[in-house]
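Pair request: fold both.
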Amino acid sequence: MPQPSALPPFEHRYVTLPDVRLHVAELPAGPRPMVLLHGIGMDWRVWQAMARRFAPAFHLYAVDLRGHGQSDKPERGYSIAHYAADIEDLIDSLGLTDAVVVGSSLGGVIGGAVEIPPDVVSRRILVDPPLTGGPLRDKDMFRDILVLKHGRPPALADYLARRNPEAGRFLAEAMAEMWRESADGVLTEPLSDADHYFDIAPALRQVESPTLLMRAEPDKGGALSAADAERALRLLPAGSSVVFIPGSGHAVHATNPVEFASQVYRFTGADSTTAGAERSA
């Protein structure tokens, strides 16, 4: 069985779009482009561990969403429509075709809201996105983080560790660091539109590329319910499907990376036989 080979370092670039400048970490390993979108409060680094599983089958573009990581942090403009427009402009600026968009949590909602032709984005993988039909379910958590991210650093890490007991202290501290770097608007804008923030049904009806909805374990923080997934699936095109990953937490790529990678390869039809890291993990 092939052994993992050392990956080249990510190449970092800044892409200036009409409304914002985004930071992109690029790994030009394989032929097919894959755009990776992180969850709320996080940044591109949440995908680093997956890179060895997706190389050399994919050319990776791990994006810092506006307000996150090293991307610009405007005071306003954190609706799903703003995020989706950024990704549309980014994909156009990069000149990508036959791309796979993979989004986790908020990134999954954005991946579903992106309006782009199927020859440009041929597959979408939405990882445990909170497709609630509109309502924001974690209002109290958002309010807590908004306060704690400006307080003493250990307090936010302690809070995240309590909410994610299986994650471990190291991950809780890394998450706290990412949250502190994010713009306050990332939280205040969803809170200001808490009843409608995740209403992307009109966008899902316009999706033309087959889409995989990936569900996590509800008892481990899964955000996409079976009912919400089935409702979304009825809006998506032929070839779309829902898969449930037993035992996985909300960040499926972090809690069950082997199965996550297997599902991605299966759905995209990519050649996993060249991905020695994924097979030998």
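--- second member of the pair ---
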Amino acid sequence: MDRKKRKRLERAGWRIGSAAEFLDLSDVEEALVDMKLTLGTRLKKARERHNLTQTALARRMGSSQSRVAKMESGDPGVSLDLLVQGMLAAGATRQEIASALSPRKRAAGA
């Protein structure tokens, strides 16, 4: 959000914060959510990079297309184990998975 918009909202009485603050997440919970969302995004990129449809990836995993869609969209019911399994089935390397799990630098003002 740009500074001008932020100032305008704050003057109008709005409090600006992060989703973690709004949901009152602990640092551990915030890190877990971030890892799951990052893995889901990276899963989709790996699948597309290897020219796989969601259905083809699901077949490789012994799962369903709808489960792959949930994995890619950040559904909270998807486990880290399943996301890692999906990454491997999509052709991602261990290094790519480790990179997705490593802490990301926060954007300024976040």
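Observation on the second member. The CA atoms of residues 52 and 90 lie 8 Å apart.
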